[in-house]
Amino acid sequence: MPYFRTAPYEADMKEIILCKYGELVLKGANKPHFEAMLLRRIRARAERYGDFAVRSMQSTVYIEPQSEDCDFQGMLDSMTKMFGFAGVTAAAVCGKTMEELRACVHEYLPRRMTGVRTFKVEAKRADKSFPLGSPEICAAAGGYVLECMPNLRVDVKNPDRTVRVEIREAGAYLHFDQLRGAGGMPPGSSGRGLLLLSGGIDSPVAGYRMARRGMEIDALHFESFPYTSERARDKVFSLAQLLTAYTDRMYVHVLSLTRIQEEIKKNCAEEYFTLLLRRFMMVLAARMAKAHVCGALVTGESLGQVASQTLEAIRVTDAMADLPVFRPCIGMDKEEIVQTARKIGTYDTSVLPYEDCCTVFTPRHPKTRPEAEKVAAEAAKLDFDALCDEAFATAYTVRIDPNTIEKLEKQ
Ligand code: ATP
Ligand code: MG
């Protein structure tokens, strides 16, 4: 969609995207470092939507289309999924005189206010050298709105639409209420973590939550072919791809647990099956994390949700990982997790009914309060290291971005 709109009086109307920092404003001396990181990410993401100039000033990022064929709306939507911003808005750029503001109101607003009956204007004057104060700007701009849309009424308490005028150093901007930003910290500002990604509801939410804190996310999926199907694995790739709307790309490593599961089933007491399997998962995940320079593991566990997520069970499995394990869903109710999954768009895919490796061979009466010595005794019935090596040798990696899913050649 072209962004230069032809005005009745043939002025060029320019629309840009303003993104306002969230938590980043609290950063002190490190702020430029985080800003540089964020700008790099925005520029890289912008390539998908056309030629945009990106710069930051006064805790705001200005994104300006440089050609008529930019996908302005696509870029705007994608900035609501960029971690680091509290708010995002499309704004018309106008000169810093009241005459230019008037022209801008006449040109920009009418087609964007169809169906609106009441409005108010709010003004913010960051440039204190501007001759009028905020109340005068509001009054004048309100008058301009009524000139071109005489049927509207001012309602300062409960308007259908709020028109905002911002007078900044760089220029004056006209826009409506901003869209809510994704919050959090810029991607890549908090190291790299390895997400244990199942096909369920919780683990994509866990990945999203850590990515929101600035963590780059790689994923590890355990499959159990032929007990689990290709469709189950493809569903996991789809979930990872949905997350790339926020993370831009993701490497998903896939490991087979088939042999390990068969060996546990054959040699160990049934009620310890899941716990033993999860210990293998932790060891393999830690090993994979180190191979890919990830400093932490991330899981979708939630305290007390299932037998393997009681405090005692988590202690037994956690002990196997020699790097931090982040569990951002640990204190969330299922309902809250579901709400987040819906918000980030993973829910509908998560609930597709394909089997997970954890659900094959599930014991009828799993241990909910395991004792560490008993678990260790059951584990001792297996050649733990050899099974880990064997499983690790099955690994392959898929690179995923919003448009492609590509299996990488083994190095
Ligand atoms: P989810 O909705 O994430 O599947 P869940 O409630 O089904 O969670 P579990 O199956 O016990 O819980 O798994 C707990 C966590 O272990 C998951 O959130 C995920 O991080 C990890 N996990 C489980 N299965 C797998 C798998 N097949 N591959 C990778 N990680 C897994
Ligand atoms: Mg699961």
Q: Biggest β-sheet: count, sense, barrel?
A: 10 strands, mixed
| Average pLDDT | 92
Bound molecules: adenosine-5'-triphosphate, magnesium ion
**Global structural class:** alpha/beta
Number of strands: 17
Q: Point out poorly predicted stretches.
A: 1-11
Tally of individual helices: 13
**Cα distance spanning the termini:** 43 Å
What is the share of helical residues?
25-40%
Assembly category? single chain
Question: Nutshell version of this structure?
Answer:
The chain is of the alpha/beta class. The chain has 13 helices and 17 strands. It is elongated and about 85 Å long.
Structure description:
The protein is 36% helix and 22% strand. It contains 13 helices and 17 strands. It is elongated. Residues 1-11 have low confidence and may be disordered. Bound molecules: adenosine-5'-triphosphate and magnesium ion. Residues 196-198, 200-203, 220-222, 299-301, 305-306, 308, 356-358 line the site of adenosine-5'-triphosphate. Residues 198, 200, 356, 358 line the site of magnesium ion.
Write the layout of secondary structure elements.
Blueprint (H helix, E strand, L loop, with lengths): L4 E2 L5 E10 L9 H16 L5 E6 L2 E6 L6 H8 L5 E10 L3 H11 L9 E8 L8 H15 L4 E2 L6 E7 L4 E4 L3 E2 L11 E5 L5 H11 L3 E8 L6 H18 L2 E7 L1 H10 L5 H19 L4 E3 L12 H8 L6 E2 L7 H11 L2 H4 L21 H8 L4 H9 L3 E5 L4 E3 L4
Parallel strand pairs: 6-7, 6-8, 11-12, 11-14, 12-13, 14-15
Antiparallel strand pairs: 1-2, 2-4, 2-5, 3-4, 5-9, 5-10, 8-9, 13-16, 16-17
The structure holds adenosine-5'-triphosphate and magnesium ion.
